Amino acid sequence: MSAHLIDGKAFAGAVRSRVAAHVAALAAHGQPGLAVVLVGEDPASQVYVRSKGRMTVEVGMASVEHRLPAETPEAELLALIDSLNRDDSIHGILVQLPLPGHLDANLVINAIDPAKDVDGFHVLNVGRLGTGQTGMVPCTPLGCLLMLKDYHGSLSGLEAVVVGRSNIVGKPMAQLLLGENCTVTIAHSRTANLAGVVRRADIVVAAVGRPEMIAGDWIKPGATVIDVGINRIAAPEEGAGKTRLVGDCHFDSCAAVAGAITPVPGGVGPMTIACLLVNTLHAFCDRNGLARPTDLT
Ligand code: NDP
After folding, report:
1. What spacing in Å lies between the alpha carbon of 208 and ligand 1's midpoint?
2. Whose CA is nearest to atom 5 of ligand 1?
3. Which of 110, 206, 256, 290 is 20 to 30 A distant from 84 in Cα terms?
4. Is 96 marked active-site?
5. Exposed, middle or buried, 241 (CB in 10 Å: 0-12/13-18/19+)?
6. Annotated catalytic, 119?
7. Are 228 and 144 in contact (CB under 8 A)?
8. Any catalytic annotation for residue 52?
9. pLDDT in tens, 79-121
């Protein structure tokens, strides 16, 4: 491996420490509160919600969890969101995705008060990001951007290729990179000559959900590779029935060519939760008419 390893775990720890310092310094204005709503029993979602709750408390914020059964009627979920919207002790609301199939995710997300939409998925916040206005920025792409800016300083003029066009990662990632004056290409499942497109990039952000799809010979020498993918695959070498996590990039071959790369796990994942706490702090500052801290983003 010749690439610099971008240590998302350490970077996220530093971001959370700064958030904690701000929470302590702002105590005279109250305590930021984050409500997480989990519908159903998706095992991965349960793990995420648990770590979100733990880290929220660790930075000095109040954490409220609402766990609802998978068959919860839409009207009941909307009523809960309405009550959280009106609750002055709650500054951030996150509805864990994916939702069970009978619930309309767009309807549910757009029911959240945009000022409390710490996931940045409300259509108003999507519009603000797209038009360069201050709002709530989705946590995963924000985490990727912070790591890129920390490593590169200025991103201006760099060629960025984002592989994946989902509303939660690919599209907002592209908007953020455009905002930093990158020349941005969004690739997806219908992109012709994907390897050739990726090979142009100074910055590759992989958000595909296909284990180890992007190989080292797709990477321009010296490029920075941000691997958003989290894929669980069988790991028979570690014992029968064992699994391990891998990204969307083939780590060893990409790391041999790239200038810098994020590992999976320990790269983008920890930054996502750190940015959720940043967004909750921003929502708290906005609500109290305070300036957002300048040392977090
Ligand atoms: P989605 O499934 O919503 O989107 C996947 C995107 O990848 C789509 O745009 C799809 O294209 C594209 N794609 C699929 N197959 C190919 C292919 N063969 N070639 C090129 N493009 C392809 O996934 P998400 O954006 O929600 O998540 C992506 C990955 O990131 C997943 O592994 C997920 O687990 C992970 N993730 C990690 C987070 C973290 O905190 N680290 C947070 C969120 C997600 P098309 O639109 O044409 O179908």
Report:
1. 3
2. 208
3. 290
4. yes
5. exposed
6. yes
7. yes
8. yes
9. 999 999 999 999 999 999 999 999 999 999 999 999 999 999 9
